[in-house]
Amino acid sequence: MIAVIDYDAGNMLSVVKALGHLGQEPVITRDRETICLADKVILPGVGAFGDAMNRLNGYGLTGVIREVIAKGTPFFGICLGLQLLYDESEESPGIAGIGALKGTIKKIPTGEYKKIPHMGWNSLDFPNKGRLFKGIDEGAYVYFVHSYYLEAANRDTVTATCDYNVSIDASVESGNVFACQFHPEKSGTVGLQILKNFIDL
User: Is 173 a catalytic residue?
Assistant: First the structure.
């Protein structure tokens, strides 16, 4: 069973719809026991880092997420769900993240031609090709919507990058923890393959 963590994230239903397209019946839940018993857990997310952490804390989910990660359950953070796995973000100074991974969430710098937010399709490079990208060619295009980006402390965890005014760590993998800054649920056949690869872990 795949548990999709419910903390009122905007992209939750689109993630569930994509999983359903792959023959899955995910459970949308904020129940601790259900999440802890799940075979796999997904943390979706769009919006502001601070607001999201306040909701996770308010629903008592932050500790549950740390618990399922610590026990080795395959865990997938999507978009803001990636950023929340880190200690903090420039978007919301003073608000602690989940702290499962080490790195910095920074504001994307403005560029002469490229506006913020980074919204649309961008190609991926694979510095360390991870398990989520099995069967996917380097240079594949995926869909992004974000104004802040990850700079991972451990470069060995970075499985995909892209360029948008700056080099963005677009995906990471560390043990049982996987995360993408882009939206696989909105990335067509490439995104569905990424989700299938997570399902097949």
Answer: no
Catalytic-residue membership of 79:
yes
Q: Compute the distance between CA of residue 51 and CA of residue 157 in angstroms, rounded to an integer.
A: 27
Catalytic residue among 146, 162, 180, 183: 183
Residues of the chain predicted below pLDDT 50: none
Q: Is 118 a catalytic residue?
A: no
Q: Pick the catalytic residue from 79, 91, 118, 162.
A: 79
Residue (of 171, 176, 199) closest to 66 by Cα position: 176
Class of domain 2-199: alpha beta
Q: Which residue, among 80, 8, 67, has the nearest Cα to 33 in the 3D structure? A: 67
The domain spans of the chain are: 2-199
Following DSSP, what letter does each residue of 111-162 receive, concatenated?
-SS--SSEEEEEE-B-SS--GGGTT--TT-EEEEEESEEEEES-GGGEEEEE
Predicted pLDDT of residue 113 = 67
Q: β-pairing, 27-29 with 2-5?
A: parallel
- pLDDT at position 145 is 93
